[in-house]
Design goal:
The strands form 9 sheets. A 7-stranded mixed β-sheet has the order 31-30-28-26-32-33-34. Strands 9-8-5-6-7-25 form a 6-stranded mixed β-sheet, with helices on both faces. The protein has a 5-stranded mixed β-sheet with strand order 1-15-11-12-13. By secondary structure, it is α/β, with parallel strands linked by helices. The N and C termini lie far apart (about 55 Å). The chain is globular. The protein folds into 3 domains: about 290 residues, Aconitase, domain 3 (2-Layer Sandwich); about 160 residues, Aconitase, domain 3; about 220 residues, Aconitase, domain 4.
Length: about 775
């Protein structure tokens, strides 16, 4: 089904060659690396001098939604924003349930509309489109690059290299600066043959994720899709695979383009944005993912990660052992609350019975997916039992087309509930299942709590990811897990599905505000009472004393665990209120500990030396036993000693691009993270942009570091200024045992990144 090759491979004239075959043809692999689509598009957007190993990219357009754009614009305003220099779409698909949190969600939307007027932006009102569907329909184009503040910013199937990053990276673009990244490796994803009837894009995507996530095969690399299998896929099918590449932890993605892409862009009035994209001459790739599309069966990602994948048929027939492992993981993650997830009890009458189906968002809510689900459910019934089905078309133009071709009627007649464009099911703000329920979803993620349950309150449910086709097949069986390949695809009902899409531009033309290149500097920026400015942040001091406020030993820590999605979404415009939820699902004691540490730093800044010295005597006692002179010198000049908190996690930052996963720690006085490795570039970038040290330590720290230990980093400012990779320090155990020396690494930092850390945050960097 999928094979991996960890060595260079060459494509020449549409043929896949081994390195030996390329050598026999006299192909120079080093030169051929410049022929990949990824290299050519990156080079066209790179402003760095030739030969510089760090790319300095400027993007053609930006996109944010209503969880992120307020903070981005507030940061940019504080840093000198005058106007939006490129098209910037402010969509409203996350906080569009305006009954949640009083007026604050709609206050954010009003802020977004007035910001679009003031600075010359594009405002897409609530319920009109999910962020990525609008970008596909109205922004993506061949050879372009788009930067978004949502991690699933992926438009590679339309010839656009798109990257999802934390908000501060968009701030840099708004201020005319660059996105800096080491030149990435390029991984060829070679598609062969054609999918079986009933196998959809989510099935292919999950199969790829399962093959490459755990081993980091494509981490921080670009995935370039090519091969004879591409031509047989519709554009929406390609988009459905492409959007899920985020879950592989790759940096971006790009596909070869053809007449189908041209027709798609022409359908949306943008044929001029088409260009044929193919490798020019022999192209060399660093690695290979080879996919036999014909061998991919319907797949399911069991809780609690998109990489936890198995064939649907295997789980449906005899998945008790697999579900036992999920139950064990629930108990491990949630403690007593995890006992409520009894998935094995859902096996009865010879099958596995699910409780809820959702087809939604940028991955599932496409016209084609909804049409396929409608055809499968035509004349069928979802039943009147526990199982329910909700379908969210990804945009109003798509919903209108589904009304006109009859698909909506078929879905409704079968018992499905049709809802408007909304990302809620993807991050826990809509269709939260019952306690103990199993929800099957064509959406993007199934992390713990992603569906909206609250294990801290004894509420827990599970999400499994599936393709819309198999969800519809399951719905037709009243919730009994069913792969879509079990259906008779030769029946007239399924053989002649109407996929004739007609895009109606009136929906956007009448409601979307497009003010690009037409800023109104005198326009009033309307800020509701919940929209707050960032608190003052201070430059990196000469020395740092870090108190360990949390130690997380899970193999991977998601951004959902660092700052919860769902119930906190309405507070994303208020840094102080949002910070109260930091690590609330993973370590409820973290906020209290961080605040206690921050109080000491506030006392230091206020000149209350007696309070500070009293705490230092306690915290630094282990160091007195090994280096009393150092203790005395630090206590003698408190102006040079910063005091803050630090979080240790083995591999933090998987998942969302939300910068609040880092900024909330900084608001609470955090100065650093310590990790064995960072799950994604975007989380590490978020730490840096909020002035936090992205420290790397040994795996042994997971066993030897404890909450309330202290870490002293003398001379840390000089080390950052000198571009030192290693930072020497001391671990001061809370149990009073003698201090022990330690060394942390910073990893590669650009000159600007070092300066941001030294200045204390991106805002300070731009206001020096």
């Amino acid at each position: 089904m999928i094979s991996l090759q960890d060595s260079p491979v060459i494509v020449d004239d549409g043929q896949l060659l081994s390195r030996e075959e390329a050598a026999a043809r006299g192909i120079d692999c080093a030169a051929a690396r410049k022929a990949t689509l990824a290299h050519r598009i990156l080079s066209a957007h790179n402003t760095a001098p030739e030969g510089d190993a760090t790319l300095r990219l400027r993007f053609d357009a930006l996109a944010s939604h209503d969880i992120t754009y307020v903070g981005i614009i507030q940061t940019a305003r504080a840093s000198g924003l005058k106007r939006f220099p490129v098209p910037y779409a402010l969509t409203n698909c996350h906080n569009s349930l305006c009954a949640v949190g009083g007026t604050i969600n709609e206050d954010d939307h009003l802020f977004g509309l007035t910001a679009a007027r003031k600075y010359g932006g594009i405002f897409v009102p609530p319920h009109l489109a999910v962020i990525h569907q609008y970008a596909r329909e109205m922004m993506a184009g061949c050879g372009k690059m788009i930067l978004g503040s949502d991690s699933h910013t992926r438009y590679g199937a339309l010839g656009t290299m798109a990257i999802g990053e934390g908000g501060p990276e968009l701030v840099k673009q708004l201020l005319g600066k660059t996105y800096d990244v080491p030149a990435p490796d390029v991984v060829l994803v070679w598609l062969e043959n054609a999918p079986q009837p009933g196998v959809g894009p989510q099935d292919v995507a999950l199969a790829i994720i399962g093959a490459v996530f755990a081993n980091g095969f494509v981490k921080n690399r670009v995935m370039e899709f090519a091969g004879p299998g591409v031509a047989g896929l519709s554009v929406e099918y390609r988009c459905g695979i492409d959007v899920m590449t985020t879950e592989t932890t790759c940096l971006s993605s790009i596909w070869t383009t053809d007449d189908k892409v041209r027709d798609y862009l022409a359908l949306h009035g943008r044929e001029a944005d088409y260009a044929p994209l193919r490798p020019e001459g022999p192209a060399c790739y660093d690695r290979l993912v080879r996919v036999d599309l014909a061998a991919v069966p319907p797949m399911i990602a069991l809780p609690f990660h998109p990489s936890n994948v198995y064939p649907v048929a295997e789980v449906a027939a005899h998945g008790e052992e697999l579900l036992a492992a999920v139950e064990a993981e629930a108990r491990k993650q949630f403690g007593a609350a995890g006992e409520g997830l009894k998935l094995r009890e859902k096996f009865r009458d010879g099958g596995l019975w699910t409780d809820q189906g959702i087809i939604a968002g940028c991955a599932g809510g496409s016209f084609e997916n909804c049409c396929m689900a409608a055809a499968i459910l035509d004349g069928q019934s979802t039943g009147n039992g526990e199982f329910s089905l909700s379908v969210y078309p990804a945009s109003e133009p798509q919903a209108l087309a589904l009304v006109r071709n009859g698909a909506i009627a078929k879905l409704m007649e079968a018992g499905a509930v049709i809802k408007n464009a909304f990302c809620g099911p993807c991050f826990g703000a809509g269709d939260t299942p019952a306690h103990g329920a199993l929800s099957i979803r064509h959406s993007t993620r199934n992390f713990p709590n992603r569906e909206g349950s609250k294990p801290g309150n004894g509420q827990v449910s599970g999400v499994a990811l599936m393709d819309a086709r198999s969800i519809a097949a399951t719905a037709a069986n009243g919730g009994r897990l069913t792969p879509a390949t079990d259906l008779d695809w030769d029946s007239p009902r399924l053989k002649n599905i109407n996929l004739d899409y007609r895009f109606d531009p009136l929906v956007y033309g009448r409601r979307v505000y497009n003010g690009f290149n037409q800023p109104e500097p005198e326009a009033e920026l309307k800020r509701g009472p919940n929209i707050a400015d960032w608190p003052a942040m201070h430059p990196l001091p000469r020395h740092l004393l870090l108190r360990v406020a949390s130690v997380i030993t899970d193999p991977v820590t998601t951004t959902d665990e660092l700052i919860p999605s769902g119930e906190t979404s309405s507070l994303r415009s208020n840094p102080l209120k949002l910070a109260e939820f930091t690590l609330s699902r993973k370590d409820p004691g973290y906020v209290g500990r961080a605040k206690d540490i921050q109080a000491v730093e506030k006392a230091r800044l206020a000149g209350d030396e007696s309070t500070v010295r009293a705490r230092l005597r306690d915290w630094c006692a282990p160091l007195v036993k090994v280096d009393p002179a150092l203790c005395d010198s630090l206590a003698a000049d408190l102006a040079q000693l910063g005091i803050g908190s630090v979080v240790f996690a083995c591999k933090p930052g998987d998942g969302s691009a939300r910068e609040q996963a880092a900024s909330c720690q900084k608001v609470l006085g955090g100065w650093a993270n310590i990790a064995v490795e960072y799950a994604t570039k975007r989380y590490r970038s978020n730490l840096i942009n909020w002035g936090m040290l992205p420290l790397l330590g040994s795996a042994e720290l997971a066993h030897s570091l404890a909450v309330n230990d202290s870490i002293l980093l003398p001379g840390v400012r000089e080390a950052v200024e000198a571009d030192a990779d290693a930072i020497a320090g001391w671990i001061l155990p809370a149990d009073g045992s003698p201090a022990r020396s330690c060394t942390f690494r910073l990893g590669e930092l650009t000159a600007d990144e070092r300066r941001i850390i030294l200045d204390g945050c991106l805002i300070n960097f731009y206001n020096r």
